[in-house]
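Dear colleagues,

As part of the handover before I leave the project, I'm documenting each prediction I ran so the next person doesn't have to rerun anything. This entry is a single chain, and its sequence is reproduced below.
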Amino acid sequence: MKQIAFVILLSLISSVSRAELTEEELVSTTQAFIAAKNARQQPDSNVADVDQFLSFLDDNIIDEHVKFNVTITNKAALREGMLAKLEDKIIFSHMEIIDMMVGKNVVFVKFKEHAKGQPSHLTHPIEYTAVNIMSLEFNEKGKIAHIRRHHGM
């Protein structure tokens, strides 16, 4: 009887400590994350769109913009910056996933972004198209714990 209880306990511990997301979970979460990223950059984006985007992130998120040598290590600071960007005039924004590479609790996503908007500090709109690569590292709770943004040229 003790052996059966031990085997059951060992099985429970190993399944809890495993905490590895399946490829399907990683892909579907990444697709939903990119959709939420795009939704928070639309002409009618609002606080709810920002909060939906942030819901994919762990509270202790590390968000690196590699090209600009900027790292944000606080979800509250990230939210504050995103809310400030709601003041920008967005004419349109579209993101399209080109490719994904999935590893153990990590996804590298290559996506094309085409947008036009006028940041609040500029007097004229800018339009750009870029292909970007972003790595998303997931924790055991299925939340994104680390983002590395490798901006396009």
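The longest strand covers residues 89-103. The CA atoms of residues 59 and 118 lie 30 Å apart.

All the best with the project,
I.
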